[in-house]
Design brief:
Elements: E1 2-5, H1 11-29, H2 39-52, E2 56-63, E3 66-77, E4 88-97, H3 106-120, E5 123-127, H4 135-140
Parallel strand pairs: 4-5
Antiparallel strand pairs: 1-2, 2-3, 3-4
Helix pairs in contact: 1-2
Length: 157
């Protein structure tokens, strides 16, 4: 398994992973991610989004040509402090592993790789909004629910 930053050659597979994730959320949580959606139009939109939004770091675990797992990281720059220790914080989102690659430690390895990468880049904090199903995995991976975040919803999706 190769752990790496994803590139444009992976965008179609990343769109497929997002589609599969939507299917699972529809089944597991009763969401409507795919209601009325066209897979081809979605893929085109998703690839265009990735081409336009280079601020996302996309990490992949690949098995040959297959992207088995992917995780997106959005870096938020911090205003510089006199001590200059941390440059940014980061938001982990769109974490997904193909069903046939689950329970093999691949996601855990990829997350560990990401944490090392971000640490080297002087990231102060990595945060995530986990689903109920994934909370325990994040806690085992070093995340803590102790910091309460205040949120202000500005619109509906």
């Amino acid at each position: 398994m190769e752990l790496r930053l994803a590139g444009e050659q992976d965008y179609i597979q990343l769109a497929e992973l997002k589609w599969l994730h939507g299917e699972e959320d529809d089944m597991d949580y009763g969401e409507n991610n795919l209601a009325g959606a066209d897979k081809n139009l979605f893929t085109e939109e998703f690839v265009g989004f990735l081409q336009e939004h280079k601020e996302y770091l996309i990490f992949a675990a690949s098995d040959g040509e297959i992207v088995a797992s992917a995780m997106f990281v959005y870096r938020i720059p911090k205003v510089p402090k006199p001590n200059g220790k941390a440059r940014y914080i980061a938001y982990l989102t769109n974490v997904y592993t193909r069903k046939e690659y689950r329970n093999q430690g691949i996601g855990t390895e990829l997350l560990s790789y990401i944490k090392g990468y971000l640490t080297e880049q002087k990231c102060e904090l990595l945060f995530v909004w986990p689903s109920e199903k994934s909370r325990n995995w994040y806690e085992r991976s070093g995340f803590s629910p102790e910091n309460e975040i205040f949120e202000c919803v500005l619109g509906s999706e």
